[in-house]
Amino acid sequence: MVLYNVTVILDEDIQTDWLHWMKQRHIPEVMDTACFVSHRMLKVLDSPNEGVTYCIQYIADNIEDYNRYLLNFAPALRNSFPERFSNKFVIYRTLMEFID
Predict the structure, then answer these.
(1) Which pLDDT score is estimated for 79?
(2) Pairing of strands 89-97, 38-44
(3) What residue segments make up the domains of the chain, in order of their start?
(4) CA-CA distance, 81 to 74, in Å (whole number)?
(5) Which pLDDT value is given to residue 35?
(6) Which of the residues in the chain have pLDDT under 50?
(7) What per-residue string of b and e applies to 31-67 under the rule 16 or more CB within 10 Å gives b?
(8) Model-wide pTM > 0.90
(9) Which CATH number fits domain 2-97: 3.40.50.150, 3.10.20.310, 3.30.70.100, 3.40.350.10?
(10) Predicted pLDDT of residue 81
C-alpha cells in the first residue's frame, strides 16, 4: 500500500471556505477516481509555517493505482482549485510506502 500525502499551507482568511470546498467537492472527486481506497484529513497543530496547515492523505492499494491517478486524473484535479484561492496557499506532495 502507498500513502499519497498532500500538505497545504493556507492563508487563514480562506480556511473556512477551503475546508468546505475540500470536503464537499475536491476529496469526493479524488475518491471518485477509484484509485484510492481511503482518505483522511488532518490539521497540523504545531506547524512552523505562517497560516494554517492541513494534510490530506489518500491510500492506494498499490503504486499502479497511484500512477493511474497521476496520469489520468491529477492534472485536471490540480487545476480545479477555485480562482478565489489563488496565491493564498502552498502545496507539497509526498508519496510514502507502508512498511508494516
Answers:
(1) 87
(2) unpaired
(3) 2-97
(4) 12
(5) 98
(6) none
(7) eeeebbeebeeeeeeeeeeebbbbbbbbbbeeeebbe
(8) yes
(9) 3.30.70.100
(10) 83
Write the secondary structure of 2-62 as one string of H (helix), E (strand) and C (coil). EEEEEEEEECHHHHHHHHHHHHHHHHHHHHHCCCCCEEEEEEECCCCCCCEEEEEEEEECC
Cell of 13: 482568511
| CA 98 to each of CA 1, 37, 46, 59, 65: distance values in angstroms, whole numbers, following the listed order | 6, 14, 24, 10, 15
Q: How far apart, in whole angstroms, are the C-alpha atoms of residue 53 and residue 56?
A: 10
d(CA 71, CA 88): 26
* Residues facing residue 91 across a β-bridge: 8
Contacts of 4 (CB under 8 A, 6+ apart): 36, 57, 58, 59, 60, 66, 69, 93, 94, 95, 96
- The residue type of 40 is R
Specify the DSSP class assigned to residue 100.
-
